[in-house]
Amino acid sequence: MSISGTVTVKNNKYRPKGDFHRIEPNTPIRSADEGWKLLGVTNPREMIYIHSYGGEAIFFESLGQGKLMGARCDNPKCGSKGTIYQPFRTFCSDCLVKNTVFDMTDLAKKTAKVHTFMVCERSGAFNVLDKPIKFINIEFDGVPTILMSYLCVGEPKIGMRVTPIFKKVNPTYTILDLAWVPEGTKAAALPEGFAF
Ligand SMILES: [Zn+2]
Q1: Which residues are in the CB-under-5-Å shell of ion ligand 1?
Q2: How many angstroms separate the CA atoms of 7 and 15, rounded?
Q3: Gap from CA of 81 to ligand 1 centroid (Å)
Q4: Which of 3, 39, 94, 116 could be 18's S-S partner, Cβ–Cβ 3.0 to 4.6 Å?
Q5: Considering only CA atoms, which of 149, 174, 150 is closest in space to residue 62?
Q6: How many other CB atoms sit within 10 Å of the CB of residue 100?
Q7: pTM of structure
Q8: Interval 95-110: pLDDT, tens
Q9: In a 10 Å sphere around its CB, with 0-12 CB exposed, 13-18 middle and 19+ buried, how is residue 21 labelled?
Q10: What digits encode the pLDDT tens for the residues 129-158?
Q11: Handedness of CA 137, 179, 174, 2 (dihedral sign)
């Protein structure tokens, strides 16, 4: 069994190491209706996808440090100057100038509310969240965009105040390092590895 592929960047070049394409033995697909006649084969194979974060890397790095980073357009010539974007976006979508990155954790802790929500009893392949998943759309004071995330304690209600929690122990460096709980939730009620 070979080691799963990893990547580091050195001298500004991606340096993949290990195995990025793995194949396992296939199996025949046979018909129980027609005397086990051969109908085809399965083709099990694994590919490791290299997902580059670019200018959004700071957002994902910060989650594991307990910080929600926002992006703000500070271009004086932009009609959207001063607009805060959450979800994070590297560039202002109005003027295409690079946004200013700032820590909006306090703003989130003080003003985050459930805009709307949906509860999903089923999910797609590779989803690792516990079901039912309580997806929430979160609004923040002074932020015109809405963040999609999930509530991991309690039941969602429109307008309820929520607080961000962060996977500080063994972070995954993905959006799964961020979740939300109702305001006033005790630290003991948080899922493993998460903290305020
Ligand atoms: Zn702008």
Answers
A1: 73, 75, 78, 80, 92, 94-95
A2: 5
A3: 5
A4: 3
A5: 174
A6: 13
A7: 0.88
A8: 999 999 999 999 999 9
A9: exposed
A10: 999 999 999 999 999 999 999 999 999 999
A11: negative
